[in-house]
Amino acid sequence: MNFINYIIDNMSKVILYSITLALSLTVVYVSTRMGFKIGLVVALLPAIAILLIHLIRNPINAFFLLFCFNYFVMGLSRYIKVISPGIALDMLMIATLIIYVINSFGKDSKLRIKDSYNTITLLSFIWFLYCMFQIFNPNLSSVVAWMTGVRNLGVYFFIIVVLTTLILRKFEDVKKFLFIWSILSVFAVIKALYQKFFGFDLAELRWLYLEGGSVTHVLYYGVRYFSFFTDAANFGTGIAFSSVVFSLYAFFNKNKKLKIYYFLVALLCFYGMIISGTRGSLAVPFVGYTLFVFLSRKPKYIFLTLFVIISSFIFLRFTHYGNGNTYIRRMRSAFNTEDASLKVRLDNQKRLKTYMWQYPFGIGIAMSRPNATTYEPNPVISKIPSDSWYVRVWMELGIVGLLLHVFILLFVIAKGAYIAFFVLKSEQLKGIVIAMLCGLFGVYIAAYSLEIIGQLPTSIIMFICMAIIFVSPSIDQEIQLSNKLIP
Fold first, then answer.
1. pTM score, two decimals?
2. Which helix (H) or strand (E) holds 219?
3. Half-sphere exposure in the Cβ direction for 178 (13 Å, CA)
4. Which uninterrupted H or E stretch holds 85?
5. Mean pLDDT: which of 5-9, 144-148, 436-440 is highest?
6. 271-284 per-position pLDDT tens digit
7. Whether the Cβ atoms of residue 143 and residue 377 lie closer than 8 Å to each other
8. Which residues sit opposite 222 in a β-bridge?
9. Alpha carbon of 94 to those of 62, 63, 112, 160, 278: distances in Å?
10. Helical axes 85-104 vs 59-76, angle rounded to 10°
11. b vs e for 170-187, b when ≥16 Cβ sit within 10 Å of the residue's Cβ?
Protein backbone atom coordinates (compact mmCIF):
# COMPACT_ATOMS: atom_id res chain seq x y z
CA MET A 1 0.00 0.00 0.00
CA ASN A 2 2.85 2.34 0.89
CA PHE A 3 4.49 1.53 -2.46
CA ILE A 4 1.29 2.41 -4.35
CA ASN A 5 0.94 5.68 -2.42
CA TYR A 6 4.57 6.50 -3.24
CA ILE A 7 3.91 5.96 -6.96
CA ILE A 8 0.80 8.14 -6.85
CA ASP A 9 2.65 10.91 -4.99
CA ASN A 10 5.52 10.82 -7.50
CA MET A 11 3.53 10.16 -10.66
CA SER A 12 5.37 12.80 -12.71
CA LYS A 13 8.72 11.17 -11.92
CA VAL A 14 7.35 7.74 -12.74
CA ILE A 15 6.10 8.95 -16.11
CA LEU A 16 9.43 10.66 -16.85
CA TYR A 17 11.45 7.57 -15.93
CA SER A 18 9.12 5.34 -17.96
CA ILE A 19 9.45 7.53 -21.05
CA THR A 20 13.23 7.65 -20.62
CA LEU A 21 13.42 3.86 -20.31
CA ALA A 22 11.15 3.34 -23.33
CA LEU A 23 13.16 5.81 -25.41
CA SER A 24 16.45 4.17 -24.40
CA LEU A 25 15.18 0.73 -25.41
CA THR A 26 13.85 2.18 -28.67
CA VAL A 27 17.22 3.80 -29.47
CA VAL A 28 19.06 0.53 -28.76
CA TYR A 29 16.62 -1.44 -30.93
CA VAL A 30 16.72 1.06 -33.83
CA SER A 31 20.52 1.34 -33.68
CA THR A 32 20.85 -2.45 -33.76
CA ARG A 33 18.40 -2.91 -36.61
CA MET A 34 18.93 0.23 -38.74
CA GLY A 35 22.36 1.55 -37.83
CA PHE A 36 23.92 4.13 -35.54
CA LYS A 37 22.91 7.23 -37.57
CA ILE A 38 19.20 6.39 -37.50
CA GLY A 39 19.45 5.58 -33.80
CA LEU A 40 21.11 8.96 -33.17
CA VAL A 41 18.24 10.73 -34.93
CA VAL A 42 15.69 8.90 -32.78
CA ALA A 43 17.69 9.77 -29.65
CA LEU A 44 17.62 13.45 -30.58
CA LEU A 45 13.87 13.57 -31.20
CA PRO A 46 12.95 14.56 -27.60
CA ALA A 47 15.52 17.38 -27.65
CA ILE A 48 14.20 18.53 -31.03
CA ALA A 49 10.62 18.44 -29.70
CA ILE A 50 11.59 20.51 -26.64
CA LEU A 51 13.43 22.99 -28.86
CA LEU A 52 10.41 23.33 -31.17
CA ILE A 53 8.07 23.95 -28.23
CA HIS A 54 10.44 26.62 -26.96
CA LEU A 55 10.70 28.28 -30.39
CA ILE A 56 6.93 28.24 -30.90
CA ARG A 57 6.53 30.02 -27.57
CA ASN A 58 9.37 32.43 -28.42
CA PRO A 59 9.44 32.94 -32.22
CA ILE A 60 12.09 35.65 -31.89
CA ASN A 61 14.58 32.94 -30.86
CA ALA A 62 13.74 31.07 -34.06
CA PHE A 63 14.47 34.28 -35.96
CA PHE A 64 17.85 34.68 -34.25
CA LEU A 65 18.64 31.00 -34.86
CA LEU A 66 17.93 31.56 -38.56
CA PHE A 67 20.14 34.65 -38.53
CA CYS A 68 23.06 32.80 -36.88
CA PHE A 69 22.78 29.84 -39.24
CA ASN A 70 22.76 32.22 -42.21
CA TYR A 71 26.06 33.68 -41.01
CA PHE A 72 27.85 30.31 -41.10
CA VAL A 73 25.94 28.56 -43.89
CA MET A 74 28.35 29.24 -46.76
CA GLY A 75 31.35 28.26 -44.67
CA LEU A 76 29.63 24.97 -43.84
CA SER A 77 29.34 24.22 -47.56
CA ARG A 78 33.10 23.58 -47.61
CA TYR A 79 32.77 20.89 -44.94
CA ILE A 80 29.35 19.33 -45.58
CA LYS A 81 28.83 17.74 -48.98
CA VAL A 82 25.93 15.38 -48.18
CA ILE A 83 23.24 18.08 -48.04
CA SER A 84 23.41 21.56 -49.47
CA PRO A 85 23.63 24.14 -46.66
CA GLY A 86 21.53 26.41 -48.89
CA ILE A 87 18.69 23.89 -48.81
CA ALA A 88 19.11 23.66 -45.03
CA LEU A 89 18.75 27.46 -44.85
CA ASP A 90 15.58 27.28 -46.95
CA MET A 91 14.13 24.65 -44.63
CA LEU A 92 15.00 26.71 -41.56
CA MET A 93 13.40 29.78 -43.14
CA ILE A 94 10.20 27.83 -43.83
CA ALA A 95 10.28 26.40 -40.31
CA THR A 96 10.54 29.93 -38.88
CA LEU A 97 7.49 30.98 -40.88
CA ILE A 98 5.56 27.93 -39.65
CA ILE A 99 6.60 28.68 -36.06
CA TYR A 100 5.29 32.23 -36.47
CA VAL A 101 1.96 30.98 -37.85
CA ILE A 102 1.52 28.48 -35.00
CA ASN A 103 2.41 31.12 -32.41
CA SER A 104 -0.04 33.62 -33.92
CA PHE A 105 -2.94 31.27 -33.05
CA GLY A 106 -2.11 31.43 -29.35
CA LYS A 107 -4.35 33.49 -27.06
CA ASP A 108 -1.40 35.42 -25.62
CA SER A 109 0.33 35.95 -28.95
CA LYS A 110 1.20 39.54 -29.86
CA LEU A 111 2.17 38.65 -33.43
CA ARG A 112 -0.24 40.10 -35.99
CA ILE A 113 0.00 39.76 -39.75
CA LYS A 114 -1.10 43.37 -40.23
CA ASP A 115 2.15 44.48 -38.55
CA SER A 116 3.96 43.52 -41.74
CA TYR A 117 1.99 45.99 -43.86
CA ASN A 118 4.48 48.71 -44.79
CA THR A 119 6.30 50.11 -47.80
CA ILE A 120 9.33 47.84 -47.68
CA THR A 121 7.11 44.75 -47.57
CA LEU A 122 5.21 46.02 -50.61
CA LEU A 123 8.42 46.77 -52.52
CA SER A 124 9.96 43.41 -51.64
CA PHE A 125 6.75 41.70 -52.78
CA ILE A 126 6.81 43.56 -56.11
CA TRP A 127 10.42 42.53 -56.61
CA PHE A 128 9.51 38.97 -55.60
CA LEU A 129 6.73 38.88 -58.22
CA TYR A 130 9.04 40.25 -60.92
CA CYS A 131 11.59 37.52 -60.17
CA MET A 132 8.88 34.83 -60.08
CA PHE A 133 7.51 35.86 -63.46
CA GLN A 134 11.01 35.44 -64.89
CA ILE A 135 10.16 31.74 -65.20
CA PHE A 136 8.22 32.76 -68.33
CA ASN A 137 11.24 34.56 -69.81
CA PRO A 138 11.61 33.05 -73.31
CA ASN A 139 15.40 33.32 -73.06
CA LEU A 140 15.51 31.07 -69.98
CA SER A 141 17.09 27.76 -70.92
CA SER A 142 16.65 25.94 -67.61
CA VAL A 143 13.90 25.95 -64.99
CA VAL A 144 16.36 24.32 -62.57
CA ALA A 145 18.67 27.33 -62.99
CA TRP A 146 15.77 29.69 -62.27
CA MET A 147 14.81 27.73 -59.14
CA THR A 148 18.40 27.89 -57.90
CA GLY A 149 18.96 31.58 -58.65
CA VAL A 150 15.59 33.07 -57.71
CA ARG A 151 16.15 32.40 -54.02
CA ASN A 152 19.01 34.88 -53.57
CA LEU A 153 17.57 37.34 -56.07
CA GLY A 154 13.97 37.62 -54.90
CA VAL A 155 12.67 35.04 -52.43
CA TYR A 156 15.00 35.72 -49.49
CA PHE A 157 14.40 39.47 -49.72
CA PHE A 158 10.65 39.09 -49.34
CA ILE A 159 10.68 36.38 -46.65
CA ILE A 160 13.30 38.08 -44.46
CA VAL A 161 11.55 41.46 -44.68
CA VAL A 162 8.23 39.87 -43.67
CA LEU A 163 9.78 37.92 -40.79
CA THR A 164 11.67 40.96 -39.51
CA THR A 165 8.67 43.28 -39.61
CA LEU A 166 6.54 40.68 -37.82
CA ILE A 167 8.97 39.59 -35.12
CA LEU A 168 11.59 42.30 -34.54
CA ARG A 169 9.28 45.03 -33.24
CA LYS A 170 10.77 45.97 -29.86
CA PHE A 171 13.71 48.24 -29.15
CA GLU A 172 15.33 45.61 -26.92
CA ASP A 173 15.04 43.05 -29.72
CA VAL A 174 16.78 45.39 -32.17
CA LYS A 175 19.61 45.89 -29.69
CA LYS A 176 19.83 42.09 -29.27
CA PHE A 177 20.09 41.73 -33.04
CA LEU A 178 22.97 44.22 -33.15
CA PHE A 179 24.76 42.48 -30.29
CA ILE A 180 24.40 39.03 -31.88
CA TRP A 181 25.60 40.50 -35.20
CA SER A 182 28.65 41.96 -33.43
CA ILE A 183 29.51 38.60 -31.83
CA LEU A 184 29.24 36.85 -35.20
CA SER A 185 31.42 39.54 -36.80
CA VAL A 186 34.09 39.01 -34.14
CA PHE A 187 34.01 35.25 -34.85
CA ALA A 188 34.41 35.97 -38.56
CA VAL A 189 37.49 38.15 -38.05
CA ILE A 190 39.02 35.67 -35.56
CA LYS A 191 38.61 32.94 -38.18
CA ALA A 192 40.36 35.14 -40.77
CA LEU A 193 43.16 35.87 -38.27
CA TYR A 194 43.52 32.13 -37.65
CA GLN A 195 43.88 31.61 -41.41
CA LYS A 196 46.51 34.35 -41.55
CA PHE A 197 48.66 33.23 -38.63
CA PHE A 198 48.06 29.46 -38.47
CA GLY A 199 47.08 28.56 -42.02
CA PHE A 200 44.08 26.89 -43.68
CA ASP A 201 42.40 23.64 -42.69
CA LEU A 202 41.95 20.70 -45.06
CA ALA A 203 38.53 21.80 -46.35
CA GLU A 204 39.82 25.30 -47.09
CA LEU A 205 42.93 23.91 -48.80
CA ARG A 206 40.69 21.69 -50.96
CA TRP A 207 38.62 24.75 -51.93
CA LEU A 208 41.75 26.77 -52.72
CA TYR A 209 43.80 24.26 -54.68
CA LEU A 210 41.35 21.67 -55.99
CA GLU A 211 38.26 23.80 -56.61
CA GLY A 212 40.02 26.86 -58.06
CA GLY A 213 39.86 29.32 -55.17
CA SER A 214 43.60 29.97 -55.27
CA VAL A 215 43.28 31.77 -58.61
CA THR A 216 41.72 34.79 -56.89
CA HIS A 217 42.98 34.29 -53.32
CA VAL A 218 46.63 33.24 -53.50
CA LEU A 219 48.18 36.09 -55.50
CA TYR A 220 51.66 37.40 -56.15
CA TYR A 221 51.39 40.07 -53.46
CA GLY A 222 49.99 37.76 -50.78
CA VAL A 223 46.96 35.78 -49.61
CA ARG A 224 43.43 37.17 -49.46
CA TYR A 225 41.70 35.79 -46.37
CA PHE A 226 38.02 34.87 -46.52
CA SER A 227 37.09 33.56 -43.04
CA PHE A 228 34.00 31.32 -43.37
CA PHE A 229 32.45 33.44 -46.14
CA THR A 230 32.16 32.38 -49.76
CA ASP A 231 35.25 34.35 -50.77
CA ALA A 232 37.44 37.28 -49.77
CA ALA A 233 35.29 39.85 -51.62
CA ASN A 234 32.19 38.76 -49.73
CA PHE A 235 34.08 38.70 -46.42
CA GLY A 236 35.79 42.06 -46.98
CA THR A 237 32.63 43.89 -47.97
CA GLY A 238 30.39 42.23 -45.41
CA ILE A 239 32.81 42.88 -42.55
CA ALA A 240 33.29 46.50 -43.74
CA PHE A 241 29.50 46.86 -43.56
CA SER A 242 29.66 45.65 -39.96
CA SER A 243 32.51 48.06 -39.19
CA VAL A 244 30.57 51.10 -40.42
CA VAL A 245 27.35 50.17 -38.59
CA PHE A 246 29.06 49.39 -35.27
CA SER A 247 31.35 52.43 -35.33
CA LEU A 248 28.43 54.79 -35.93
CA TYR A 249 26.22 52.99 -33.43
CA ALA A 250 29.00 53.49 -30.86
CA PHE A 251 28.62 57.27 -31.28
CA PHE A 252 24.96 57.15 -30.26
CA ASN A 253 25.13 54.47 -27.57
CA LYS A 254 24.55 55.93 -24.11
CA ASN A 255 26.10 53.00 -22.28
CA LYS A 256 29.84 53.76 -21.97
CA LYS A 257 30.86 50.10 -21.79
CA LEU A 258 28.83 49.24 -24.88
CA LYS A 259 30.16 52.34 -26.62
CA ILE A 260 33.72 51.10 -26.11
CA TYR A 261 32.73 47.53 -27.03
CA TYR A 262 31.15 48.48 -30.36
CA PHE A 263 34.01 50.80 -31.22
CA LEU A 264 36.54 47.99 -30.63
CA VAL A 265 34.42 45.58 -32.69
CA ALA A 266 34.33 48.17 -35.48
CA LEU A 267 38.14 48.45 -35.43
CA LEU A 268 38.51 44.67 -35.50
CA CYS A 269 36.10 44.45 -38.45
CA PHE A 270 38.04 47.18 -40.26
CA TYR A 271 41.21 45.12 -39.89
CA GLY A 272 39.30 42.13 -41.24
CA MET A 273 38.41 44.20 -44.30
CA ILE A 274 42.10 45.04 -44.81
CA ILE A 275 43.37 41.44 -44.72
CA SER A 276 40.64 40.36 -47.14
CA GLY A 277 42.60 42.27 -49.80
CA THR A 278 39.33 43.44 -51.40
CA ARG A 279 39.76 46.88 -52.95
CA GLY A 280 36.08 47.35 -53.70
CA SER A 281 35.18 47.03 -50.02
CA LEU A 282 36.92 50.37 -49.36
CA ALA A 283 33.82 52.03 -50.82
CA VAL A 284 31.80 50.91 -47.80
CA PRO A 285 33.58 53.05 -45.16
CA PHE A 286 34.31 55.96 -47.51
CA VAL A 287 30.75 56.22 -48.82
CA GLY A 288 29.13 55.24 -45.53
CA TYR A 289 30.95 57.87 -43.51
CA THR A 290 30.37 60.49 -46.21
CA LEU A 291 26.63 59.88 -45.97
CA PHE A 292 26.93 60.15 -42.19
CA VAL A 293 28.25 63.71 -42.63
CA PHE A 294 24.95 64.63 -44.29
CA LEU A 295 22.71 62.68 -41.92
CA SER A 296 24.33 63.68 -38.64
CA ARG A 297 23.22 66.98 -37.14
CA LYS A 298 25.89 67.06 -34.44
CA PRO A 299 28.91 69.23 -35.40
CA LYS A 300 31.42 67.20 -33.37
CA TYR A 301 30.49 64.04 -35.28
CA ILE A 302 30.55 65.87 -38.63
CA PHE A 303 34.02 67.34 -38.12
CA LEU A 304 35.46 64.09 -36.77
CA THR A 305 34.03 62.09 -39.68
CA LEU A 306 35.23 64.62 -42.28
CA PHE A 307 38.70 64.51 -40.76
CA VAL A 308 38.81 60.70 -40.98
CA ILE A 309 37.50 60.65 -44.58
CA ILE A 310 39.77 63.40 -45.92
CA SER A 311 42.93 62.26 -44.13
CA SER A 312 42.37 58.64 -45.26
CA PHE A 313 41.80 59.74 -48.85
CA ILE A 314 44.93 61.93 -48.88
CA PHE A 315 46.98 59.11 -47.32
CA LEU A 316 45.89 56.54 -49.91
CA ARG A 317 45.68 58.77 -52.98
CA PHE A 318 48.53 61.23 -52.68
CA THR A 319 51.20 59.56 -50.53
CA HIS A 320 53.38 56.47 -50.74
CA TYR A 321 53.69 55.80 -47.03
CA GLY A 322 53.13 52.18 -46.11
CA ASN A 323 53.77 50.80 -49.60
CA GLY A 324 55.91 48.13 -48.01
CA ASN A 325 52.71 46.60 -46.64
CA THR A 326 50.97 44.50 -49.28
CA TYR A 327 47.47 45.31 -48.02
CA ILE A 328 48.01 49.07 -47.91
CA ARG A 329 49.46 48.88 -51.41
CA ARG A 330 46.41 46.88 -52.50
CA MET A 331 44.00 49.44 -51.01
CA ARG A 332 45.93 52.30 -52.61
CA SER A 333 45.47 50.73 -56.06
CA ALA A 334 41.70 51.21 -55.67
CA PHE A 335 42.26 54.93 -56.40
CA ASN A 336 44.21 54.24 -59.58
CA THR A 337 42.03 55.34 -62.53
CA GLU A 338 44.43 53.58 -64.91
CA ASP A 339 43.94 50.21 -63.22
CA ALA A 340 43.83 47.41 -65.79
CA SER A 341 40.94 45.54 -64.11
CA LEU A 342 38.82 48.72 -64.19
CA LYS A 343 39.43 49.12 -67.92
CA VAL A 344 38.48 45.48 -68.53
CA ARG A 345 35.27 45.97 -66.53
CA LEU A 346 34.31 49.06 -68.54
CA ASP A 347 35.11 47.29 -71.83
CA ASN A 348 32.85 44.37 -70.83
CA GLN A 349 30.02 46.81 -70.09
CA LYS A 350 30.45 48.40 -73.52
CA ARG A 351 30.21 44.95 -75.12
CA LEU A 352 27.02 44.24 -73.19
CA LYS A 353 25.38 47.46 -74.39
CA THR A 354 25.53 46.23 -77.96
CA TYR A 355 23.51 43.13 -77.07
CA MET A 356 21.28 43.96 -74.11
CA TRP A 357 18.96 46.36 -75.96
CA GLN A 358 17.35 43.23 -77.46
CA TYR A 359 16.54 41.85 -74.00
CA PRO A 360 14.61 44.43 -71.90
CA PHE A 361 13.68 41.66 -69.42
CA GLY A 362 17.11 40.03 -69.45
CA ILE A 363 18.40 36.65 -70.56
CA GLY A 364 16.94 34.89 -67.51
CA ILE A 365 17.81 34.29 -63.87
CA ALA A 366 21.07 32.34 -63.38
CA MET A 367 21.85 32.64 -67.09
CA SER A 368 25.02 34.67 -66.58
CA ARG A 369 28.47 33.42 -65.63
CA PRO A 370 29.48 31.01 -64.13
CA ASN A 371 26.40 29.11 -65.34
CA ALA A 372 27.18 29.69 -69.00
CA THR A 373 28.38 26.13 -69.63
CA THR A 374 26.03 24.37 -67.19
CA TYR A 375 22.65 25.46 -68.55
CA GLU A 376 23.56 26.49 -72.12
CA PRO A 377 22.07 30.01 -71.97
CA ASN A 378 22.65 32.88 -74.42
CA PRO A 379 25.91 31.88 -76.16
CA VAL A 380 27.32 35.44 -76.27
CA ILE A 381 25.99 37.47 -73.31
CA SER A 382 26.31 34.73 -70.71
CA LYS A 383 30.04 34.46 -71.37
CA ILE A 384 30.76 38.15 -70.71
CA PRO A 385 31.90 38.63 -67.09
CA SER A 386 29.54 40.81 -65.09
CA ASP A 387 32.09 41.83 -62.39
CA SER A 388 29.30 43.82 -60.72
CA TRP A 389 26.04 43.12 -58.92
CA TYR A 390 24.20 45.70 -61.00
CA VAL A 391 25.58 44.40 -64.28
CA ARG A 392 24.52 40.90 -63.27
CA VAL A 393 20.98 42.13 -62.52
CA TRP A 394 21.00 43.95 -65.87
CA MET A 395 22.08 40.79 -67.70
CA GLU A 396 19.65 38.41 -66.01
CA LEU A 397 16.63 40.69 -65.42
CA GLY A 398 17.08 43.32 -68.12
CA ILE A 399 16.96 47.10 -67.94
CA VAL A 400 13.42 46.88 -66.52
CA GLY A 401 14.61 44.73 -63.63
CA LEU A 402 17.70 46.87 -63.06
CA LEU A 403 15.69 50.11 -62.86
CA LEU A 404 13.19 48.51 -60.46
CA HIS A 405 16.00 47.12 -58.32
CA VAL A 406 17.92 50.40 -58.11
CA PHE A 407 14.69 52.29 -57.36
CA ILE A 408 13.99 49.98 -54.39
CA LEU A 409 17.53 50.35 -53.05
CA LEU A 410 17.55 54.15 -53.32
CA PHE A 411 14.02 54.42 -51.93
CA VAL A 412 15.20 52.64 -48.77
CA ILE A 413 17.91 55.30 -48.29
CA ALA A 414 15.60 58.25 -49.09
CA LYS A 415 12.71 57.05 -46.92
CA GLY A 416 15.11 56.00 -44.17
CA ALA A 417 16.70 59.46 -44.12
CA TYR A 418 13.23 61.03 -43.91
CA ILE A 419 12.33 58.75 -40.99
CA ALA A 420 15.57 59.61 -39.18
CA PHE A 421 15.20 63.36 -39.74
CA PHE A 422 11.50 63.96 -39.21
CA VAL A 423 9.87 60.96 -37.50
CA LEU A 424 12.10 59.43 -34.84
CA LYS A 425 12.40 61.12 -31.45
CA SER A 426 14.62 58.60 -29.67
CA GLU A 427 18.26 59.62 -30.25
CA GLN A 428 19.56 56.10 -29.77
CA LEU A 429 17.07 54.55 -32.22
CA LYS A 430 17.80 57.37 -34.65
CA GLY A 431 21.49 56.51 -34.33
CA ILE A 432 20.80 52.86 -35.16
CA VAL A 433 18.78 53.81 -38.24
CA ILE A 434 21.46 56.27 -39.43
CA ALA A 435 24.20 53.67 -38.88
CA MET A 436 22.27 51.11 -40.91
CA LEU A 437 21.56 53.61 -43.70
CA CYS A 438 25.24 54.54 -43.97
CA GLY A 439 26.32 50.89 -44.01
CA LEU A 440 23.72 49.98 -46.62
CA PHE A 441 24.64 52.88 -48.91
CA GLY A 442 28.31 51.90 -48.69
CA VAL A 443 27.47 48.35 -49.78
CA TYR A 444 25.30 49.75 -52.62
CA ILE A 445 28.31 51.57 -54.05
CA ALA A 446 30.70 48.67 -53.46
CA ALA A 447 28.26 46.45 -55.39
CA TYR A 448 29.20 48.34 -58.57
CA SER A 449 32.51 46.46 -58.61
CA LEU A 450 31.46 43.36 -56.64
CA GLU A 451 28.61 40.86 -56.85
CA ILE A 452 27.84 41.33 -53.18
CA ILE A 453 24.16 42.16 -52.54
CA GLY A 454 22.98 38.65 -53.38
CA GLN A 455 25.69 36.91 -51.33
CA LEU A 456 25.05 35.20 -48.00
CA PRO A 457 25.32 36.22 -45.20
CA THR A 458 25.61 39.89 -46.20
CA SER A 459 22.36 39.95 -48.16
CA ILE A 460 20.27 38.63 -45.25
CA ILE A 461 21.80 41.20 -42.88
CA MET A 462 21.01 43.96 -45.38
CA PHE A 463 17.39 42.84 -45.68
CA ILE A 464 16.99 42.77 -41.90
CA CYS A 465 18.45 46.28 -41.63
CA MET A 466 16.08 47.55 -44.35
CA ALA A 467 13.08 46.13 -42.49
CA ILE A 468 14.24 47.59 -39.15
CA ILE A 469 14.50 51.04 -40.75
CA PHE A 470 10.86 50.88 -41.87
CA VAL A 471 9.64 49.39 -38.57
CA SER A 472 11.54 52.00 -36.52
CA PRO A 473 8.61 54.51 -36.31
CA SER A 474 6.45 51.98 -34.43
CA ILE A 475 9.44 51.06 -32.23
CA ASP A 476 9.92 54.77 -31.52
CA GLN A 477 6.30 55.04 -30.41
CA GLU A 478 6.91 52.18 -27.96
CA ILE A 479 9.97 54.00 -26.58
CA GLN A 480 8.06 57.27 -26.14
CA LEU A 481 5.18 55.48 -24.45
CA SER A 482 7.50 53.68 -22.03
CA ASN A 483 9.24 56.97 -21.22
CA LYS A 484 5.87 58.54 -20.34
CA LEU A 485 5.01 55.63 -18.07
CA ILE A 486 8.26 55.98 -16.13
CA PRO A 487 7.68 58.53 -13.35
1. 0.87
2. strand 218-219
3. 31
4. helix 85-104
5. 436-440
6. 999 998 888 888 89
7. no
8. 219
9. 11, 11, 18, 11, 34
10. 180
11. bbebbbebbeebbebbbe
